[in-house]
Design brief:
- With 198 residues, the chain is α+β, with helices and mostly antiparallel strands.
- It is 23% helix and 34% strand.
- It contains four helices and twelve strands, in the order E-E-E-E-E-E-E-E-H-H-H-E-E-E-E-H.
- The protein has a five-stranded antiparallel beta sheet. Strands 2-7-6 form a three-stranded antiparallel beta sheet, with no helix packed on it.
- A hairpin with a 5-residue loop joins strand 4 and strand 5.
- The radius of gyration is 19 Å and the shape is globular.
């Protein structure tokens, strides 16, 4: 969805316990973080990092379709969680990740409003339908499928940025690093280089 990542994992090795590693150190330099195991199906936290932006705020709330056993580093503020899923049905696991640039509370709210159900195929179908609506804004006629593929890939690239930065309640973190609220959707990553590359 616009503010929730939907994952589906299939485990098919009978000799290994299905597991996932949540690693907040993966990617760029961590400035601050938290990782909270809320219960056997929910994790929330934050990740403030530095790379292309000096102080990038990312808050999350994660829900799993099955119970997990969690193992973290023994320090009080671990950057990693190891999750084991011993009772998976059909060797499949669904994971919903609500995100926000403002707070864990907003990340959970975004998840609850945009991704209530647990049917992965419904999310996949809706996403495909939404992208098809966007891509049908321009129709081309050609007998060559390769030209259609090139054109619609380029059209898709024009739509992957800018990104929505505001939450469903209107909150967003601006370049002044303060939280603001607005009745219209706010965006980020207005990148002229990416526009040129598209």
């Amino acid at each position: 969805t616009e503010r929730v990542g939907i994952h589906e994992y299939t485990f098919n090795n009978e000799n290994l316990t299905p597991s996932i590693v949540l690693d907040l150190e993966h990617r760029d330099i961590l400035l601050d973080w938290s990782l909270k195991i809320k219960n056997s199906r929910e994790i929330s936290g934050k990740r403030i990092s530095k790379s292309w932006a000096d102080e990038q705020h990312f808050y999350f709330h994660i829900e799993f379709s099955d119970d997990f056993e969690s193992f973290t580093n023994k320090d009080s503020n671990s950057t990693k969680a190891f999750l084991n899923f011993k009772n998976l049905k059909d060797d499949k696991l669904m994971v919903k990740v609500g995100i926000s640039m403002v707070s864990e509370k907003n990340a959970k709210e975004n998840l609850n409003k945009e991704a209530k159900g647990w049917n992965f195929n419904n999310y996949k179908t809706n996403s495909k339908k939404n992208w098809n609506q966007q891509l049908q804004k321009i129709n081309i006629s050609t007998d060559k499928d390769s030209l259609k593929e090139i054109f619609y890939t380029a059209l898709y690239h024009t739509m992957i940025a800018p990104n929505i930065i505001s939450d469903l309640n209107g909150d967003f973190r601006s370049t002044d690093m303060k939280v603001h609220s607005d009745s219209v959707t706010n965006y980020t990553v207005f990148s002229l280089w990416d526009t040129f590359r598209s």
